[in-house]
Design goal:
alpha+beta, Pathogenesis-related Protein p14a, 7 helices, 6 strands, binds 2-acetamido-2-deoxy-beta-D-glucopyranose
Length: 222
Amino acid sequence: MAMAQWFLLLCIFFISASASNVQTKVTDNPADELVAVLNSNRTGNKLSSLYSNPGLACLALQYIKAYQGECSAVGGPDAKKPAESEFAETFAPDCDVKASSLAQITGRFLACQSKYAEPSEAFNDILIRNSKSLDILNSKNHTEVGAAVSGSDGGGPYFWCVLFSNGKPKSSFVTEGGEPKVTRPGCFSGANDQCNGANTLSRTIHLWPIALGSLVALLYAL
Ligand SMILES: *[C@@H]1O[C@H](CO)[C@@H](O)[C@H](O)[C@H]1NC(C)=O
Ligand SMILES: *[C@@H]1O[C@H](CO)[C@@H](O)[C@H](O)[C@H]1NC(C)=O
């Protein structure tokens, strides 16, 4: 009994100590940062900056959740992807996005790896890795973008998802209320929120540096 209490106290101490260490480092939402990096890359290449649509980004987070933390289902020989019908049947209702406002998805990136990556690193080293993904990034077909990042259960493996659409900004992927329904764990772009999920992500890194030794990155681009 006494030992269990000691253990609990130690845990609380350890977790709060790490949390306060990390708190100062995390200032923003990693999904918003990813969109900023992506848009500055596009404008650097004389392409339009894409509208950051929170409804689309919320769908990107649901897209990640459909993988249920199964990294091996992203890319590679066992690659799977959610059925297109999931957008209308599951993702949109989960986000409070009106099914009638869904627009065409003109491109998507999905990547997963065991180690958490900063948004610019995720963009340059994980998401954009070949000419196919560059073509998607630089496509003139997109008008808007939504990004999400999530670790399964707040820890690894970490998934990054970017969805592009040619919908009309402001009238596509709109919600019944105003803001899309926020679901945790995970962060999505466009909602002007500071994502607590980011704290969880960083804290996990802080606590488990050794678990991050092995690195698997898988990418699926369409
Ligand atoms: C855009 O990103 C790609 C992939 O990381 C990189 O090769 C390219 O130099 C970047 N371009 C600009 C203008 O930042
Ligand atoms: C842009 O859209 C056109 C017409 O739908 C399609 O043929 C083309 O492959 C798209 N380009 C990219 C880079 O996805």
